[in-house]
Amino acid sequence: MDMLSQGVAPLLQTVQGDPGAIMGPISHFFGHIINFIYTGLVNISPVNALGFSIIIMTFIIRGALVPSQIKMQKNSAKTRAIKPELDKIREKYGNTRDPELLRKMRMEQQALNQKHGINMVASCLPLLITMPIFIALFGVFGRAFLFIPSINEAYSALSQALIDLGPDFRIEVLTPIYQSLDLQNNATINGVALTETSLYYVPLINRFINAFTEYDWNTVFYAIESGYASHYDAVRYLYNNVMTAETFFGLNLVTSSGWAWPGIIIPILSVGTMVLSSWQTSKLNPATDPQTKMMQRITMTVLPLMFGWFTVGAASAVGLYWVAGNVFLIVQNLIVLKFFPHKIGLGEKPAKA
After folding, report:
1. Which residue has the higher pLDDT, 35 or 79?
2. What is the full DSSP assignment across 244-296?
3. How far is it between the farthest Cα atoms of the chain?
4. Half-sphere exposure of residue 198, counting CA atoms within 13 Å on the CB side?
5. Of 125, 160, 230, 316, which residue has the fewest beta carbons closer than 10 angstroms?
6. Distance CA 331, CA 337 (A)
C-alpha cells in the first residue's frame, strides 16, 4: 500500500552522492543549461524562476527533437502505406518456424522497407533519446542545488546556520533525523562520508537537508524555538530563501507532489495532457489492424495512469518537466495536423496559389 501511495517518493528521502559515471555527464550537461536559464530569470525575479527555467529547458529539449519526431511520423505513414505488401509477405511464409524461411521473410521485409525509404531505427530514435534525458533530469531537478550555484549558496547559508547552533543541536536534533533517513553508501563528497560525526561539513549538510521532509523541518524549528530562540528568526529567514528558490506557484519543486493540494495538480495535469497527446498521436498514426488499435487504447489509458502515479511520488519538478513536454507535444501535433498533414502522409500538399 505504501508503494501505491508514495510511488518513487522514498528515492527523494535519501541522501545521495553525485550522479554516476553513466548519467553523470548527461546530468551535468543539462545542469549547465538550466543554470544558464535560471541565472537569467533570477535576475528579473527570484520568484518562480526555477519552475520557469524547467519549462523553458523542456521546450528547448523538445524543440531539438522535433525533426526526429517528424521523421518517425513519416516512417509510420509509409509503413501504413506498404502494409498490404507486408501482409502478402507474411502470408507467403505463413506460420513457419523454419529458421531459414524466417530469415528469408525478414530479408524480404527489410528490402521492402529500404525500397520505400523506411528506417526502423528512426522510429525508435525519439524514445532512445528522451529516456536517458528523463533519467538524468530526475537527478538534476530533485537536487537543483548541485547544479545551480545561487541555490547552492542559499543551501550553504542555511546549513552553516544549523552547524553554528553547536554540537548539542547536531547531536540532539540532526542526528535523530539522520538516523531516520535512508542513506546511500555513495553519499560522500571529497572523500568525506555523511555520518553522525560529519554533521559539520556544509556540502554534506546541503545534501542532508535536501532530503528533509516537512515533518523534519517542523522538528528542527520546534527545537530551535525551544532551546535556541535567539537564532530562530535568522534560521527561518535562510530557510525561506531556500523555499523561495525551490517553489513554483506554491509548489515545492524538490519534494514529491503527493496526493494533497496543491501538489496533486501535477499528477492531474500529467494524466490529462498525456491522454490528449496520445489521442492526437492516434490521429497522426491511424490504426490499421486490431493489434495496433489495442496498443493505442493502452497508450491512451494505462500509460497516462502509470505516469500519473509516477509523478505523485517524484519531485514536482520532474512532473512539471513531464507536463511541459506533453503541452509542447500537443501544440506541435496541432500545428502538424492543421498546417502540415502532408508532411506525415495525411492529406495532399496544398497547391501553390
Report:
1. 35
2. HHHEETTEESSSB--SSTTTTHHHHHHHHHHHHHHHHHHHHS---SHHHHHHH
3. 86
4. 17
5. 230
6. 10
Cell of 232: 530562530
Q: What is the mean pLDDT of residues 114-133?
A: 72
Coil, helix or strand at residue 316? helix
pLDDT at 36 over 90: yes
pLDDT tier, 122 (very low <50, low <70, confident <90, very high otherwise):
low
pLDDT of 302 higher than 80: yes
Q: Is 164 helix (H, G, I), strand (E, B) or coil?
A: coil
Residue 353 pLDDT more than 50?
no
Kindly report the length of the chain: 353
pLDDT at 125 over 70: no
What pLDDT is recorded for position 185?
Answer: 44
The two beta strands, 247-248 and 188-189, are unpaired
What are the phi and psi torsion angles at 272 (to 5°)? Answer: -60, -45
* HSE-up of residue 96 (Cα within 13 Å, Cβ side): 15
List the alpha helices (DSSP H) in the chain: 2-6, 9-12, 24-42, 49-81, 83-93, 99-115, 120-142, 149-163, 167-169, 175-180, 202-210, 214-227, 232-246, 265-284, 290-313, 316-339
Q: Which three cell numbers stand for residue 69?
A: 519526431
Cell of 57: 529547458
The pLDDT tens digits for 225-238 are: 999 999 999 999 99
Distances in whole angstroms, Cα of residue 50 to Cα of each of 151, 218, 237 = 10, 24, 19
CB 16 within 8 Å of CB 187: yes
Question: Do 151 and 145 form a contact (C-beta atoms < 8 A)?
Answer: yes
